[in-house]
Design a protein that fits this description.
The protein has 622 residues and is an alpha+beta fold. Helices cover 40% and strands 25% of the residues. It contains 20 helices and 23 strands.
Length: 622
């Protein structure tokens, strides 16, 4: 082919510059047609397709189409001149005179905001022209709709009337890895490997559509297997392709719903967890009430008994009950949701550390990899201080530190935890390093779902500093506490002072009969007048008749709840001291602080209840 032919085949040259060398490297035949329908440039594959002599000066390109397809090509060309990327599927005559189906893809070309020409790519449909398949629908409505096989985001397969696979979309190859060549070898064998459990079902539905027994078929949530062996879940739609109102082929479309299915399963699991959480809360509430009665009865009997042997036995019972109470409190910490407000509260460091260590020990027992390690946790020099902070987060921080340090330990190692004071308080968690650190399994679970990086960011928000230190044989994490967080324990409790509440009118609203008797006996022995009821509405009616100095109410009582009762009593008498008892989690207590003076979670110590009432009353009067 001469250089002259490359540069010019029509009557006028395009004003747009093309790197024609790039077009000559294309696999597909391509040409440039001016806005006056003049063939201005063609590449080598184009010449080969139509057998054009390179010395010729003209090529009658419109006559490669029959009269019907000339209209389709002309309309597509006009659409492209109007600025659209246009496509059509038609039949062209090759150099041998044979008619073959092709896709024409036309791209408008702009020069200074004016469309001056059209770039045309031609793709021969290999399934018909080269694979030896009979062309059942070459110049038909079915053909004119096949261009979406190039661009469809959903995987597509086409079957002819002989149930041969004649097309597959690029998205099909990209999603499942099977090409048309793979499936043309033994179609149903490949289909059987793709649709492992539903191949016959799909085949039967295709046959039913071909017979006209059903218009189309949708099959939901079936498993497919890619060429690489990956499994997906898809919806399948099988529908007919018509030509001149006659069925010519069958298309099968797949919609990948794998992620949606996984999301549904996660949501289902979340619902089950919510159900378990509700059941767990109810179970804990029942146990709380039972344990509260045992604990309070043992404490009351210790007060009134005179025999040392009985007193020692009751103290032993109280000790074991407290251990159960601590475990229940930890379980509630896992089950109950907490607010994201980061509310500050005061809590003993020993209590926070004890919870963290217990969680880690449970993890060591449960986690399969950690079973091979026999790790001891040894708190040393832990003087008890009070921390004023978001203690839920602080507990998570300790858990994270202990678990991360544990991954560096020997199979038989000891994790040391120390609370030290220099010019500031800091906590050190350290371990002697093992031969190989298992740093891939550091924090399997956090109460608030925080990743290690999120924990660091959250620590900074609480003014906590985290330092990781590593030497040849030691790895440690240091948590530096801000001064405002630490409250030194002093002798503010007045030593062995006896606490008593005397000469008060006290109302007790409680539906647990045993607890009614325990609290009634306790306050009557101190010299108070006590009224007891198990109904919130009855309690309010009684209060209207006679104001009471102290109202101790359970949250979950008949009539109106303890919170409703407290709010209505405060409307009548702001001076009345109201104590709310509850075995349920009531969330953010600050919401009720305007009408509840003291909250005691069940189970509680009688001594703590009395001290709490006295200190709260003193604070109100000051």
């Amino acid at each position: 082919m001469t250089q002259n032919y490359k540069n010019r085949t029509g009557e006028s040259k395009s004003p747009v510059f093309f790197d024609r060398g790039i077009l000559d490297h294309l696999i597909y035949p391509a040409c440039i047609i001016t806005s006056k329908s003049i063939l201005e440039y063609v590449n080598t594959p184009f010449l080969d397709l139509f057998g054009i002599d390179s010395e010729e000066r003209k090529f009658d390109w419109p006559n490669v189409f029959n009269s019907e397809h000339k209209k389709i090509v002309a309309q597509t060309f006009v659409n492209s001149l109007n600025g659209a990327f246009s496509t059509c599927t038609v039949e062209v005559k090759t150099a041998e005179g044979a008619g073959i189906p092709v896709d024409l893809m036309m791209q408008p070309v702009v020069n200074k905001s004016i469309i001056t020409s059209v770039l045309v790519f031609i793709k021969v449909l290999e399934d018909e022209a080269q694979s030896g398949h009979t062309n059942h629908f070459s110049t038909t409505e079915a053909d004119s709709n096949t261009v979406h096989y190039e661009f469809s985001p959903l995987p597509l397969i086409r079957f002819n009337r002989d149930l041969k696979i004649v097309r597959c979309s690029r998205s099909f190859e990209g999603t499942l890895g099977f090409s048309l060549e793979d499936m043309s070898k033994d179609e149903w064998c490949v289909i059987g490997s793709i649709f492992k459990y539903d191949a016959e079902r799909i085949k039967n539905n295709i046959i039913e559509i071909l017979k006209g027994n059903i218009p189309f078929k949708r099959i939901g949530e079936i498993k497919v297997k890619s060429k690489s062996g990956d499994e997906k879940v898809v919806n399948v739609i099988i529908y007919p392709v018509t030509r001149d109102k006659e069925l010519a082929a069958i298309d099968l479309m797949m919609e990948d719903i794998t992620r949606i299915r996984e999301l549904k399963e996660r949501l289902s699991a979340a619902k089950r967890l919510n159900l378990i959480s509700d059941i767990g809360n109810g179970f804990i509430h029942s146990i709380n009430n039972t344990i509260n009665v045992i604990l309070n009865q043992a404490q009351l009997l210790q007060i009134i008994t005179e025999k040392d042997s009985v007193r020692q036995g009751l103290k032993q019972i109280e000790k074991y009950v407290h251990e159960v109470v601590d475990q229940l409190r930890r379980i509630k910490g896992f089950i109950n949701e907490r607010s994201d407000n980061g509310d500050e509260r005061e809590e003993s460091f020993e209590s926070i550390l004890s919870d963290a260590i217990e969680f880690v020990r449970i993890h060591f027992k449960v986690d399969e990899e950690k079973r091979r390690k026999n790790l001891q946790i040894d708190p040393e020099n832990v003087s008890d201080i009070i921390l004023r902070t978001d203690t839920f987060f602080f507990r998570e921080l300790l858990i994270w530190a202990i678990l991360k340090v544990s991954s560096y330990a020997e199979k038989k190692g000891k994790i040391e935890i120390e609370l030290k004071k220099n010019s500031y308080h800091y906590i050190t968690v350290s371990v002697r390093k093992g031969g190989a650190a298992d740093t891939s399994n550091i924090v399997p679970f956090m109460l608030n779902g925080l990743s290690p990086s999120e924990i660091r960011n959250a620590a900074e928000k609480h003014n906590l500093r985290i330092l990781e230190e590593e030497s040849v044989d030691l790895y440690s994490i240091k948590i530096i506490l801000p001064p405002k967080m630490v409250i030194e324990k002093g002798a503010s409790n007045g030593g062995d002072k006896d606490y008593a509440i005397e000469e008060r009118n006290i109302m007790i609203v409680e539906d647990e009969n045993a607890l009614q008797l325990i609290l009634g006996n306790l306050f009557e022995r101190m010299g108070n007048t006590v009224y007891i009821t198990d109904n919130g509405t009855d309690a309010f009616e009684e209060f209207k008749k006679k104001n009471y100095d102290i109202v101790i109410t359970d949250y979950d009582v008949a009539g109106m709840t303890g919170i409703e009762l407290a709010a209505r009593i405060k409307e009548i008498s702001e001076d009345t001291l109201i104590i709310l008892l509850s075995g349920w989690s009531i969330g953010d207590f600050k919401r009720y602080s305007s009408f509840i003076d003291l909250f005691m979670a069940k189970p509680f110590n009688i001594e703590d209840l009395i001290k709490g009432i006295i200190s709260t009353a003193a604070a109100k009067n000051s």
